[in-house]
Amino acid sequence: MKTWNIDSERAMLDLGERLGERLQPGDLLFLSGDLGAGKTTLTKGIAQGLEVTAAVTSPTFQLRKGYAGRIRLNHLDLYRLEKPSELAMLEPDELFEEGVTVVEWGDLLKANFPHDHLDVAIEYGPAEGERRVTLRPAGQRFDDLIKEL
Ligand code: ADP
Ligand code: MG
């Protein structure tokens, strides 16, 4: 486990970029945190690290958006999902086959698809404008990866 205090949007983008630079095809990340915590902001940084050139915007209404880069980015936001059966819309078998997958509000998916992953928890505080980011690796791959960050 590793924790940072992130004191600005810029610093969140930078952390995402460092993470994105180290990701490999097949990697799966679950981002948790209240609305406005910074999950999409971190994903924008990850996209920079993956050399995605298009602008990344929240996929809340589409559930899923894909971006070409050095490695493909699959960005999911499952906030609107109410039951696991709705995941069928996402063609889940394809989720992990190519690229890096970043999931906001992914608890339903996580329950259904045990798979090595990195849990990223973002909390408000400790001070105004700050966020506490905690990375919890599930699997050796992510143990090694977070040591480098
Ligand atoms: P989420 O996807 O978790 O709902 P967003 O990334 O869309 O959150 O929004 C985070 C908001 O919080 C942005 O408006 C961003 O500018 C703001 N913000 C303020 N301080 C920070 C910080 N330290 N880290 C990340 N975002 C911050
Ligand atoms: Mg978001």
Count up the helices.
Answer: 4
Global morphology: globular
- CATH overall fold name: Rossmann fold
Give the distance, in angstroms, between the N- and C-terminal Cα atoms: 12 Å
Number of domains: 1
State the name of the first-level CATH class. Alpha Beta
The number of distinct β-strands equals 7
Main sheet summary: 7 strands, mixed
Strand order of the largest sheet: 1-7-6-2-5-4-3
Gyration radius over CA: 14 Å
Low-confidence stretches: none
- How large is the share of residues in beta strands? 25-35%
Structural class: alpha/beta
Mean pLDDT equals 90
Give a list of the ligands.
Answer: adenosine-5'-diphosphate, magnesium ion
Can you write the helix and strand succession as a string? Answer: EHEHEEEHEEH
CATH superfamily placement: P-loop containing nucleotide triphosphate hydrolases
Share of helical residues: 25-40%
| CATH architecture descriptor text | 3-Layer(aba) Sandwich
InterPro entries: P-loop_NTPase, T6A_TsaE
Subcellular location: Cytoplasm
Keywords: ATP-binding, Cytoplasm, Magnesium, Metal-binding, Nucleotide-binding, tRNA processing
Family: Belongs to the TsaE family.
